[in-house]
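Proteins fold reproducibly. Next comes a concrete instance:

***
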Amino acid sequence: MTCSDISARRPKHIGYVRSLAAIAAICAAGCVQRDENGINAKHRIAIATLMRHPIIDQVIEGVEESLEAHGYVEGYNAEIIHLDAQGQIERAALIFDALGARDLDVLVALTTPMAQAAVRLERFPVVFAAVSDPVGAGLVTDLRRPEAEVTGASDAWPYASQLVLIREILPDANDLGVIYDPVEMASQQSIRSINDIAPEVGFEVIEAYVYTAEDVHSAATNLAPRVDAFFLIGGNVVVTSIESAVRAAIENKVPLFVAAEGAVQRGSIGSPSINYRQLGLDTGELAHRLISGERYIPVVLTSGSEYHLNREAARQMGISLPHALVERAGRVYEEIE
């Protein structure tokens, strides 16, 4: 098939192509690669995640958009394989084994547990994303010069900004109830960071552990009489159970904050904004660079640039947001979705 063939008709399986930009990118690069027999050679890219939830979906959307922009067309010159452990990390090895002898150009691994499993595999180049502490997780030894075939985009949460936001909304608060999953390595790093920062902002941290999504409502309810605010660290267990945390916060009139941008729309009062679609775009760019043969690529660090607030969540939890804060917020939600 030639570039003129592409212009004449759309491929049978267009996949993730949303515009003609990907086709143009292929033609600009000399159409598609061909193997020694003259057959269209496909790039094989796997995207693996521990589980699916709205934040991860935003990352995947960004990865796919970036790959498309670089000319990787599903069903034509690219095969994109989606792998989902459905929340069971012990399934990771089985999922990767299912790839068998397939040659992958790159394995995109989302979340810390899945990235760790992918790096231990030592079979394919790996790009990780949605990993808060790549060095602590053992994925790389140096963010600026990681291992040859491992790189990624980190979403280390801006905890100092988050606690300052809580303090601005609740100037008289003292006790902060932090709910997290102690099993997740990213959450372990997060609670250490929070405990380091909290005294500087005038908070005493009271911790509560959760191991499943079902634990979140009861943990919040038990904490309620002892704290002035809830703060959920946005690991996978917590992110999938925000609605139950919001319910507990409203029932007990305790303000709720969650370390996840998408949680504000779902009922967290406020949060710094990390653009997870942009994180995905960065990840897709890194994947393209690895596919192109580049090595020792520095890890990309994403940071929050603005605040998002939910005025209705605040009202239902018994507080009002400072007018000055609302005025400078990047986005203000008027309902809980």
Q: What stands out?
A: The radius of gyration is 22 Å.
